[in-house]
């Protein structure tokens, strides 16, 4: 099979550059509204998709218009939201059409009122392949703007629709460096779920490196914080030690959210099997009593975390405005 050849001509450089120019103009005018959150970790199995789905549903219940885009070939969001066997599950085709063909980034539907979805799936394989091709081709380019243009392919597509939503969540594949870099180039904030094991912490450090790379072309990118996942809610001393480790890994560059997500595997599995997030099952009458209590506790974790994340986002915006006023 011959190697695929590509050039940066396949990227609409004009669209990418216009997108970033719009962003810079808005930033300079002081009217940039941070709303794009990339949920990432370099390690799988750390709660990334569960967090993205539960956070998206929680925001939609507050009346916010949310776009949940899964930049992952696994398509776990469809299972979490119960839309795997519906017309909304296009296996990533809408994203592929937007990134590869320049079509508008159009959601496949509403999984919940106010929650618009762009599912992932195997159709994203071509997007990943193209990003890798573009990155290889860019190594031959001298112009620094053109050299990093491939990283802006998602940013250009998302910036064209960002005014349509209050919050945009990007659930990003753990194993694809190019998808992570493209998501970070498009995002305002980075939210990192992590478990306490060394492998998860290694994945977190990988994201920190990619964050530094993306920050060179995306000056508004901020580390929003780390969410500790699958912990024993009563292990206070263990939590303290884990927090110390993670804060050391991040060198104090992002907060570790106080609200962790507890380890209740049976409830988490049941929620995915039913295609609902824990908040939607907290009062389910057909759950056994013990399971209902676990589901209620898990739902409470997600609700408290949502409030904490929103408070942190508000604090960041307030600090930014205050800093601008002082200048």
Quick structural gist:
The chain is an alpha/beta fold. The chain has helices at 13-29, 48-61, 76-81, 93-101, 125-138, 144-147, 153-159, 177-186, 198-215, 236-250, 265-274, 289-326, and strands spanning 36-39, 66-71, 109-112, 115-118, 167-172, 189-194, 222-231, 261-262.
What does this structure look like?
- Helix 1 (13-29) crosses helix 7, helix 7 (153-159) runs parallel beside helix 8 (177-186) and helix 8 (177-186) packs across helix 9 (198-215).
- This protein has helices at 13-29, 48-61, 76-81, 93-101, 125-138, 144-147, 153-159, 177-186, 198-215, 236-250, 265-274, 289-326; strands at residues 36-39, 66-71, 109-112, 115-118, 167-172, 189-194, 222-231, 261-262.
- The protein has an eight-stranded mixed beta sheet with strand order 3-4-2-5-1-6-7-8, with helices on both faces.
- The longest helix is centred in the last third of the chain and has 38 residues, at 289-326.
- By secondary structure, the protein is α/β, with parallel strands linked by helices.
- Strand 6, helix 9 (198-215) and strand 7 form a beta-alpha-beta unit.
- The termini are far apart.
- It contains twelve helices and eight strands.
- What share of the residues does DSSP label as strand, in percent? 5-15%
- Main β-sheet, spatial strand arrangement: 3-4-2-5-1-6-7-8
* Helix residue percentage: 40-55%
Q: Name the average pLDDT.
A: 86
Q: What's the SSE pattern? A: HEHEHHEEHHHEHEHEHEHH
Structural class: alpha/beta
Features:
disordered N terminus, 327 residues, globular, 12 helices, eight-stranded mixed beta sheet, alpha/beta
